[in-house]
Specification:
The complex is a heterodimer of chains A (about 350) and B (about 200). With about 350 residues, chain A is mainly alpha-helical. Chain A has 16 helices and no strands. Chain A has two domains: about 120 residues, no CATH class; about 150 residues, no CATH class. In chain A, about 60% of the residues lie in helices and about 0% in strands. Helix content of chain B is about 70%, strand content about 0%. By secondary structure, chain B is mostly helical. Chain B is built from nine helices and no strands. Classes of the chains: A mainly alpha (about 350), B mainly alpha (about 200). The interface between A and B is medium-sized, with 35 and 27 residues.
Chain lengths: ~350, ~200
């Protein structure tokens, strides 16, 4: 009886791909690392410290919460690491080091584990962390921007006196002073497109490099961890609505500037596509993405904040279950009661 | 607010009432029915409809009473008592109407229809109408839009809570506790609309 059987009898699924939550999560972490490395050269070494504090706080919060709730400790699955990375990526590079800790507790404890843990969070935890920080520390979260470092002196912003060198983000300048002021501050349009595409502009820690975020997103697409629907519909909607309404008159806005500034790339590829908080069917995804794009543009042009994609995703998150229900795929089997 | 209003001003008033100054998520009025009826979509939709009806009507009637009875008689200090009485009577009327005409909806709403009497959002909107010195037409639009905002938030929230029912919420957070936390998170998301209108 000890010899191995010729065939095994088991329940489905029979075809296994080797994919798992852990593998997907750690791949996403890998895709998120290049922007972090670049950010050290753009904003200085303290971005790495802020990110490490954020990741450490998220993992620690997850471990302590699961210990207190008497649940299995799952910090190895990488989801808390992603939350920590994303949270750090959407806060300004000049904030005090304790700020991400509070955001991490809010993100992991309140927005994730109180609602039931991984798979049940209604809202994207990292974005809740940011929204909480913006509401609680509005000055630090909306003014601690740093001008990019050009001469690779990455320790320039370490230590005291950091407030004195804060600057404004392109979207802030655009919102309050217009496109001419953006060109005066950041150089000619072609310089702006080049710099912003690679990442040399004031902004949050991990959102500036459209190039690296795009490469990371494309790798996730290639691995089929995400589909094209949400990122494309977010980016196309923002570009189109900015082109129509973003200028002095209709059809005079700059769509390229709109998608290269703010957190569009990071949000579209890494936040809006979160499995738990977005619909899973193509039609639902397209509408979800278009909603995020439209709300982003609405907040950018009419709202109180220069950038709106964080709130746009948070506002669409609770609609994901409804979109899922409304755009269910057609039954493959005959309709109920077809044979009566 | 006394100049002639254009159509776009009214649009802004509606958007402001539904999203920016949402009666539930930005002004935090009417939270008890918000938590009470948000367990099932049917009751939430019914409640939303009842609130839209009652709030619009209450806004109109209280405005008329304020303008043509209380102010001429210099009885403004009785505003709160008058408004509460008017709303209570109105709810009774709606209740009788629903009982005869829509028994199913009446059954579904159950205790929550009389509860509108104590829904501070209804009184709140009636008082805001007066405080902001809205004209009659503005009162109608604002009351209706506020009620739509209430219904919108309620239905959105109910969708979330129905989903939470199947999630592994820790035992000590079940029920009202997680409801309040979720409402807080939703309110945080609505911060995005801050500063948009007026």
């Amino acid at each position: 009886m000890s010899e191995s059987p010729l065939w095994t009898v088991s329940v489905s699924p029979h075809i296994k791909s080797g994919e798992s939550v852990e593998r997907i999560m750690w791949t996403v972490v890998g895709c998120l690392l290049p922007p972090l490395i670049l950010s050290v050269f753009i904003f200085g070494f303290q971005t790495l410290i802020i990110t490490l504090v954020s990741v450490g706080a998220c993992v620690a919060t997850e471990a302590i919460t699961q210990k207190l709730f008497h649940r299995p400790i799952t910090i190895r699955d990488g989801s808390a690491v992603i939350t920590g990375l994303l949270l750090a990526y959407i806060i300004p590079p000049g904030v005090p080091y304790w700020i991400p800790v509070l955001g991490a507790v809010m993100a992991v404890y309140v927005a994730k584990h109180l609602l039931g843990g991984i798979g049940f969070n209604i809202f994207n935890p990292a974005l809740i962390g940011r929204a909480f920080l913006v509401a609680t520390f509005p000055v630090a979260m909306t003014s601690a921007w740093l001008p990019p470092i050009r001469d690779a002196s990455i320790f320039k912003y370490m230590g005291p006196g950091i407030d004195a060198i804060s600057t404004a983000t392109p979207l802030y300048v655009l919102k309050h002073y217009g496109i001419q002021a953006v060109i005066e501050k950041f150089g000619s349009m072609s310089t702006i497109y080049g710099d912003f595409f690679i990442g040399w502009r004031p902004g949050c820690i991990g959102e500036t490099s459209a190039l690296l975020l795009l490469l990371g997103g494309l790798y996730l697409l290639y691995k089929r961890y995400i589909t094209w629907h949400i990122p494309v519909s977010v980016i196309v909607t923002i570009a189109f609505l900015t082109w129509v309404f973003g200028g002095e008159k209709l059809f005079a806005g700059s769509p390229l500037l709109a998608i290269l500034s703010g957190g569009v790339m990071l949000g579209a590829f890494f936040m809006a596509t979160d499995y738990v908080t977005s619909p899973s069917q193509p039609t639902g995804k397209l509408i979800f993405g278009a909603g995020i794009g439209a709300l982003t543009v609405l907040i950018r042009f009419k709202g109180g904040y220069p950038e709106g994609i964080c709130y746009a995703i948070l506002l669409m998150n609770p609609l994901a279950p409804a979109l899922e229900g409304w755009f269910r795929p057609r039954r493959f089997a005959p309709e109920k009661g077809a044979f009566k | 607010m006394h100049e002639a209003w254009t159509f776009s001003d009214y649009i802004l008033l509606v958007i402001g009432a539904i999203f920016v100054n949402n009666i539930l998520l930005a002004q935090f009025l009417g939270n008890c029915p918000f938590l009470g009826v948000s367990r099932k979509m049917e009751t939430a939709t019914g409640m939303a409809m009842a609130v839209i009806f009652v709030m619009t009507l209450a806004g109109i009637i209280t405005w008329i009473v304020q303008t043509y009875v209380l102010v001429p008689l210099r009885l403004e200090y009785l505003q709160t008592i008058f408004f509460i009485l008017i709303i209570a009577a109105l709810v009774q009327l709606v209740e009788m109407f629903l009982q005869k005409s829509f028994p199913a909806l009446y059954q579904a709403l159950g205790i929550f229809l009389p509860l509108i009497t104590t829904n501070c959002a209804v009184l709140g909107v009636a008082v805001i109408n007066i405080r902001e010195e809205l004209t009659f037409l503005q009162t109608v639009v604002y009351s209706f839009a506020s009620a739509v905002g209430y219904g919108f938030a309620l239905i959105l929230f109910t969708g979330i809570r129905e989903q939470l029912e199947v999630s592994g919420i820790p035992d000590f957070m079940k029920g009202t506790a997680i409801g309040l936390v979720t409402a807080g998170l939703l309110s945080l998301a609505f911060f995005g609309f801050a500063g948009m209108v007026g």
